[in-house]
Model the fold of this input.
Amino acid sequence: MAALRTMPLTALVEGVQGERVGAFDDRPVTALVTDSRRVEPGAVFFALDGATGHGLRYLEDAVGRGAAAVVLPSGAPVPAGVPTLLVPDPRALLAPLAARLYGHPADRLRLFGVTGTNGKTTTALMTSAVLSAAGLPAGHWTTTEVRVGAALFRPFWTTPPPPDLERFLAACVDAGAQAAVLEVSSHAVVLGRIDGLRFDVGVATNLSPDHLDFHGDFASYAAAKRAFIHALDAGALAVLNADDPEVWAFARGARARVLGFGAEARADLRLTAVEARGERVRARVRIAPADLRPGGERDLSLDLALPGEHNAMNAVAALAAALGRGLDARRALAALQAFPPPLRRLESRRVGPYTVTNDVAMNEASYDTVLRWAASSGHEQVVAVCALRGHRGAEVNAAIARVFARHAGRLGLSPLIVSLSRGEVAGMSVDHAVRDEEVGAFLAVLGAAGVAAEVHTDLAGAVEAAVDRLRPGGLLLLLGTFGMDAGPRLAEQALCRRLGIMPAPPPPYLVQSYGVFDGERAPSPGPAGEA
Done:
């Protein structure tokens, strides 16, 4: 990914109020970082208070790696031999200085942001495809992939910290993009990662409890999503799910023009018919506002190569974003109909007489969506492996277990196969290990509902157990976030051994990266100061 920039230190901090210690000269600044492992000569290290501890703990490591300067909270001990800027809130300075370093690239792009609980990634990817097909070339940053021109990688964050975000936007400009599509997480709103950005369109997909470990309660989580929509100015467009009362309430107090999508009569783009069969979904969309009907057409047909009714909702959200900004309806529809299934979003592969479907289910609503789809898929048997979500709290896992309990009888899921995926998450930079209390909460809910569970510490053992149970014509569901990444490959290998055939090439799952291009070095092992 292009967009490397260099700026003299004096120019970077010009006009910034704070206490300066040491020689602030014209030494070149090439990056702003919050993780000490990413420091190299030319980087400015910001010591932030984060989930893994305060960045001050890693100050010595950052200086030892050659930091050009450090930005610390007022009153912090000052290290020797490196220019130090002391300010009341280093985090508040990160976004404006990142924009300055990369030349304010957002000023030359139309920004489309997608927030919500479920469907963000698919809707963002659909929106990017629709924009590019309709004459507005776009880059995108989503949970599963970042794409700018030929550069493609899987990021560590749904929405990155400002330095990575601004560099991404600058790379979009360098690549000739006219728009950028961003998944906007609730963390990003609260932590100031999108501060200073003016979004042309904001989409809210739906809302259900999630990330309560970070926000504390659902009201605070919803407030973060609402804040993103309410920050849109009067010239922007807010695309809201008219079927979701929590999301539709965002319209109150919004300054932007509001377009609703969904099946409710109040929706501006209304789904009048949805037919989901197997791995396809067809829908009819009625457009109410006259200014959104190119050529006078009021009714449009969608034919998607994606499973599940929820994908019709994702598609109509992307369509609303495009039509609301005057893009060509026919090109938008063509892009949606050619849109391939995203990786790990109800992604299905056939192995002989078996079907393996995997989904990066994250919360009770997404698990419910997948299990409802499985019940309507027509398979003779359903076997499920759930990789428990680690470090999210007992209640999150209890809520997911309640979803399994509701569907277990109809789908024949007892005993449910559970993976703790110890090996898969052990080496990750973010702590995804499953706690004992999370396992206990999950199993307690299942036990109270009379659903048996078979717990495996490793993913390979869980997948082998599921494959042993699978009969011809059966559906193997692989559900979970990072702990399930290797599941599809393991399942296909096991089924191919049973059938005596060679496995097909694995899906092109991307390795997580900060975006290591143009000679940048990957983070080296050692202490971290990531917030």
Remarks:
- The longest strand covers residues 269-277.
- Residues 7-101 form a domain with the Udp-n-acetylmuramoylalanyl-d-glutamate--2,6- Diaminopimelate Ligase; Chain: A, domain 1 fold (CATH 3.40.1390.10).
